[in-house]
Structures are given as structure tokens and as C-alpha cells.
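Subject: Sanity check before I submit

Could someone independently write out the C-alpha cells for this chain? I want to compare against mine line by line before I put it in a report. The sequence has 227 residues.
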Amino acid sequence: MPPDWCHVYFAPSDMFRPSHLRLLSPQELARRQQFRRQIDADLFGLATVMVKLAVATCLGRPPEQVDIDRTCPTCSRPHGRPRLHGSGLEVSISHSGNFAAVALTPGAPVGIDIEQMSSIDTGSLLPYVLDQTELDGVRDANDFYVSWTRKESIAKALGRGVMNGLNDIVVTAPSEAPRLLALDFAAPPAARMRDVAPAADYAGAVTVLTSGDVTVDVRDEAGMLGT
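---
Independent answer below. Compare away.
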């Protein structure tokens, strides 16, 4: 049965509390300590806790019993796409600026991406992100970030990296409703996409790989995190 819902959670880094550390596994605690900046460590810990609490709520089990497998299929290090084995749920995580984001849905691959928008010159990034046919639809830096997050949400749902660029993923113009038009310059897989962002100076999108209708709703992260 295709999924009919996708829950999205946003939370700022200051929602991470010392009490949340008890929900991190030894491996997750070790990875958190590897971040050089405190905000990056807090966002990693926050996103991890958000996933465990959201899954615990959906499945009716203690969050301590929720395991996140991040094993990379290439090198076996714990930095791969997060998976929730045996839960029937798919999850995606993103963080940028001061926010963490989590998307959770049953039974179909999902990807979420958020980016804090800035005034940097995006000209050098255009060939990396946009197909030639998409250039006319991007009027400014804000439009660029909208296209970028839409495409990266698709890449995450597909489980593919972005090192080789995103210009083989073609989406609708930022002024239009979000939709996947082509992938590798061929007919795309079925996908449902929505623009979602945690604050006015952020762009973001979530994509679920399904042909059915999906209701995307932003959930109460404060209540979930006990803040």
C-alpha cells in the first residue's frame, strides 16, 4: 500500500538538551564528538533524537528501542543514508544554519533538504545545480535555493550522492508548484514533492517516491522534544 502521509519536523539547535544525550547510542555519541563546531554537534544530536522520538510515537515503543542504521554501503562507515530496519518506515534528515529537519513516512523512499539562504554569488554553482532549460526560470538567489532544495530532496529519496551535480534532475520553475519533470534526461519515477521550510530565510523541500497522494504535515517538534 502506498504511503498517504509524510510527517515533517523542524527544530532549532537550542532545543537540544543534555537530557537528550541518553537517547544516543555509543556510536552516535562518538560521531557527535567528531564535529568541530558545537552547533553542528547539537544539530546532529537533535536530528537523531527527533527521529527516535517520532518513530517511537508512530510505533508505540520507547525511543530507546529505536535504532538508526547509517552504515555506508561503500565504506561501511556510519555516515550513510539513515534506515529504520523492521519498522516499515522511511526517514530522511537535513540540517542547515540553525535548524534540523526530519521527514518520516511509511513504505516509500523519502528525502528532505533545507538550506539557509544567503547573499553569496550563486553564479559558479548554476552549472552544477541547473539544467540549461531551467536557467530562465531562476531569477535570483532565492529561486536558486528553491531549485537546489527540490533537487536535493529527490537525490536523497533516490539514495544517490550529489558529488556529480544535480543538473540531471529537472524540476519545475521556483514560481510553479514543485514537481519532478525528468531524471537523467529521461522519464522520471513517480514522486510527490512539497516545498517546506523552517523559517523565512530558508528554502526546503520534501519528496516521497510514490504515485499516490501524500499529505505532508509539519508536526509539533517542541512537544515531542519536551521543551
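---
OP: Matches mine. For the report I'm noting this point. The CA atoms of residues 89 and 106 lie 4 Å apart.
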